[in-house]
Every structure is written in structure tokens, then in C-alpha cells.
Amino acid sequence: MEAQEQLKQWISESSRIVFFGGAGMSTESGIPDFRGVDGLYHQQYQYPPETIISHSFYRQNPQEFYRFYKNRMLFPEAEPNRAHLALAKLEAEGKLKAVITQNIDGLHQAAGSKEVLELHGSVHRNYCTRCGKFYSLEDILNMDEPDGIPRCSCGGTIKPDVVLYEESLDQEVLSRSVAYITRADMLIVGGTSLTVYPAAGLIDYYRGKRMVLINKTVTPMDGRADLVISGQLGEVLGDAAGV
């Protein structure tokens, strides 16, 4: 059976689908992949991206952190693509139980997905490190501080609710992700290189026989998948879900 038809058949026969995705999910919405040719790892900055978006750098040099963060990690004009819409439709139909994402852009929610587990946080949530007051992405973008560092009305520095290098993933989100994957009768993995841990290790908890890997390039886990499809996520998922 042709791969796309196999995918459609498995989706029609499944009722506890879980999707696990990475940066490739959002590249079709104009958000660059960290490791893509035009991604963050190829930008000309004074420090490497891994250094700038680390917890220690944020603490020591918040001005440079925010200069990079605002220029290279915020894409407020980005819109959900066919892949996001396909997953939202499958959830609305009762087939898809959860989206587990490594992305921080909030596009799954914008497409209509309800159960979204954000392993690396979200740019849409920002908190004062002093008093805990919440600030939206719009608040951050509209602040015009002379040094570029967003500050709370109390004077404290505002930090995005994004997991930086050197920071741990939220254990509750991880636990819920493991529970969903363990119970899934179909696991669709898309747009991720499956090289970043501990997130990539989540697929070890899948116990079924319908693990589908959709990616434009080969991943270290291709040999473990029950079905591998090379292609654009929007096209593959969009056609499979009929959006």
C-alpha cells in the first residue's frame, strides 16, 4: 500500500492518536528551523545562539539576550499552516487526543487545538521575575524600554516562559506527555530531527504498532518507525485529514 494511503487508513482506524512535533512543523508558517540553512544557527551574532539563549547568558547579559530574542525568536505575524489545521480537525473529530510540541510559537492553539503540551514553553507567556505578574507577547512587543529589556510595573525583569539551555523541562508536562504516548494507539512524529533529549526520548514510551515518522530528512529513529514518509508536513497531514 502506498504510504499516504496507509497513513489515511491508520488514522481512520485509530481513536487515540498522539502527535509529537518539532521545528519542522512551523517552517511552512515562515518560522525558521534552529538548525536549518536559514535558521538561528546560521545567523551572524556576537555569540552563538546556544550561548545567547542559555539561562546563564540571560542572567548575565539580558540586553543582548532580548535583542536576539526579539529579532530571531518572535514571529507574531506567523499563521497556522495546513499541518496545524489538520491536527486541530483530527482532535475535533475525537481521533487525536494530544499534541506534544517542542515549539514555542503557539500556532497549534491558534489553529484550534485544545490539548497542547508545550515541552519548551511559549513566547505567549511572560512573567515578572520579581512579582510574578503575567505579560502577553503583545505586551512584550509593545514595550519600548531604552535598553530593550522588558520590565514589570514593579521594576522587575520580565522573563519569557520558554525553556532556555541549562534549564529543565517542566516535569508535569513531561509526565502528561509520557501518559498520552503510553496510551496512544497511533503516534505521529513530524518535523523533528529526534536528536534533542530528553524530548526525543519520549517516543520510547510508545507501545503500539503504528508509529509514523514524517520528515523531510532522515532521522536516527527511522528504523524504529512502522511507516516513514518523506515530505512536507502540511501536504502530508493536510491530505490525510482532508484540509
What topology emerges from the helices and strands here?
Blueprint: H1 3-13, E1 17-21, H2 49-52, H3 55-60, H4 62-72, H5 82-92, E2 96-101, H6 107-111, E3 116-118, E4 121-128, E5 134-135, H7 137-142, E6 158-162, H8 171-183, E7 186-190, E8 211-215, E9 227-230, H9 233-241
Parallel strand pairs: 1-2, 1-7, 2-3, 7-8, 8-9
Antiparallel strand pairs: 4-5, 4-6
Helix pairs in contact: 1-9, 5-9
Question: What are the main properties of this structure?
Answer:
243 residues; alpha/beta; Rossmann fold; six-stranded parallel beta sheet; three-stranded antiparallel beta sheet; 9 strands; elongated
Description:
- The chain is an alpha/beta fold and 243 residues long.
- It has a domain at 1-31 and 79-120 and 168-243: 3-Layer(aba) Sandwich (Rossmann fold).
- It has 9 helices and 9 strands.
- It has a 6-stranded parallel beta sheet with strand order 3-2-1-7-8-9, sandwiched between helices. Strands 5-4-6 form a 3-stranded antiparallel beta sheet.
- Strand 2 (96-101), helix 6 and strand 3 form a beta-alpha-beta unit.
- Helix 1 (3-13) crosses helix 9 (233-241) and helix 5 (82-92) packs parallel to helix 9.
- The radius of gyration is 19 Å and the shape is elongated.
